[in-house]
Request: fold
Amino acid sequence: MPFASHSQAVVIGLNAAIVAMLDGGPHVLAVRHVVPDPAKGVRPERDGLPFGPFEPFEHRTLEAGLRSWVKNQTGLDMGYVEQLYTFGDRGRHEVKPGEGPRVVSVGYLALVRAQGAATAPDAAWRDWYAYFPWEDWRTARPAAIDEAILPRLKAWAAQGGAAREARWDRARLCFGFDGLPWDEEKTLERYELLYEAGLVAEARIDGREFAPSSQAVVELGVPMIFDHRRILATAIGRLRGKLKYRPVVFELMPPEFTLLELQRTVEAISGAQVHKQNFRRLVESAGLVEGTGRMSAQAKGRPAEKFRFRREVLRERPAPGVKLTVARGGRR
Reply:
């Protein structure tokens, strides 16, 4: 078999969704990119995930390559790193025939403890709910669902012809319409549905227009370059699912913390409220934490005991995660 020509070559890129808890919420490290727009004659900036090439002669493994250039570019020492998925759709880097190699990216989820401001040029920590405002149910059902998403998905389903019923069933399952439950792990499915319906900016950039005359175009979340918001949605869904069977939340916690701080972190990641007493009973009975005997300094109220992650649990049980008991009606 002959070797591929340069125009058929493939370059392996490494994308990282690097997550930290800052100001009580999950943040992702974003880098600003200038994106040429010849049609409008402007060069707008958009957020993207940190990414770089895999160098086969320099990097022993894909993960080693990821850690190397993230450290060089941002100064961050990543702790927990997990490979998510390989993203190779044609056109994901807007390369036209004859312009160069096709880019196939390997996406990663990385968890770090809060380390202050990003050190990379044009990089900053961004609240991940700025990109997915419909995912944050901590205080109430997001207004964007009923005000913007529901009517537009109904219009999209109505235009589906023979696929009308299948389209609406998909919307119901993803967004919990018609009384169906909300599944916090379906982050990627919801984003892909909005993309397919042409309701996010990336879809319009890619030429998937959907703007019925009765519906004005709205901006649903901050757009990202290429398919980086899809990669981030994959990371969020993976982390939310992982919470339930692996103690990954402790990768985001300081060495010592109160049970309320742990609860708030779990809620922030899952985008849902949990029952306070049930959560504390579960965490303590599961042997996930142990008391330090030290108390926190509280500005208000009584001091609370500080705890730490009990690492012995990793040898005691195969799936020591945090099972969520969601409280939809308010904090308890």
Observations:
- Residues 1-6 have pLDDT under 50 and may be disordered.
- The first helix runs from residue 62 to 74.
- The CA atoms of residues 157 and 168 lie 5 Å apart.
- The domain at 248-316 is CATH 1.10.10.10 (Arc Repressor Mutant, subunit A).
